[in-house]
Amino acid sequence: MRVLAAMSGGVDSAVAAARAVDAGHEVVGVHLALSAKPGTLRTGSRGCCTIEDSGDARRAADILGIPFYIWDFAERFTEEVIETFVGEYAAGRTPNPCVTCNEKIKFEALLDKAMALGFDAVATGHYARLSLVDGVPELRRSVDSGKDQSYVLASLTPEQLRHSLFPLGDSWKTDVRAEAESRGLSVAKKPDSHDICFIPDGDTKSFLEKRLGQRPGQLVDAETGAVLGEHTGVHGFTVGQRKGLGIEAPAPDGRPRYVLSLEPVSGTVKVGSARDLGVNVIEANRPIWPSERPLDGPTECVVQVRAHGGIVEAVAEVSGDSVTIQLREPLRGVAPGQVVVLYRTDAAEGDLVLGSAKISGTR
């Protein structure tokens, strides 16, 4: 096959490209320039898509002996990922930009361009297992549960998955680094990037305030309705947040307060105790079924609401374009705008992704 290897400049994508070459594919490497003003250097493990990263990707491609190109996707990344991120926070929702990036950039924009140029598939360094069973994609958790990225890939369509390769799904991260070193790849010990790539300093509140300005509102006790303080915008908060609330007086019982809900129209941030954070039912919409098999009646499953954590057993049922999920035990920190992913636990073959949907409400 003709395979386009997405090379971020990190160790995972470099080894994924190497394995695609070893598999006998005709491989071409591509680095996506996602920032109009890339920084010269990374700061430790923060940020990505810098000039340093593009250079690392090019050097890896040279060692592998494959052609290498840089494609400018900065404008589309800004429109599809950054502006969506800002808009979701302004609306009082909690987005996951990595999910959006995978969906709109790496497996829509990139894959569409690759297919138009005659490639058969795109290979990435994601940790997830993918197989085709009678032509039907089956997406499963990675062998390395600590690095599993099936959550951020669960919004891909069956057609996108049919043209995707995840060569690292059966590997542990430590083995991938060792393999990179044995291949002479200089990125073998390069730190993983973390946080949001377009907010390398990790200060999401300041990033949003620069774009949205200040939108003053009140911090209100959800139980009594008492005004506890003022804030500069609901975009500075997320459901489940405990620190940085700006409330001077402690709760009557001396226990911490948490953000329970956000009301962007009125500018109200409701806060309360930890016991009020628990969610028993999740309502979600716009479901995607990677294996082309929508749920048929109430279905026992395991749900995940964050890329790392927020996992609990549940029963899910579909009605039209909506999914209602009854949790077996309360889950904290669940917010509209997050993606919920449904898994079927299979002890023999590993967790299979049944589908994903966007959380619209909780109770």
From TrEMBL:
Positions bound to ATP: 6-13, 32, 125
Ranges where the record places region Interaction with tRNA: 147-149
Catalytic activity entry: S-sulfanyl-L-cysteinyl-[protein] + uridine(34) in tRNA + AH2 + ATP = 2-thiouridine(34) in tRNA + L-cysteinyl-[protein] + A + AMP + diphosphate + H(+)
EC number: 2.8.1.13
Subcellular location: Cytoplasm
Purpose: Catalyzes the 2-thiolation of uridine at the wobble position (U34) of tRNA, leading to the formation of s(2)U34.
Family (UniProt): Belongs to the MnmA/TRMU family.
Protein name: tRNA-specific 2-thiouridylase MnmA
Higher taxonomy: Bacteria, Bacillati, Actinomycetota, Actinomycetes, Pseudonocardiales
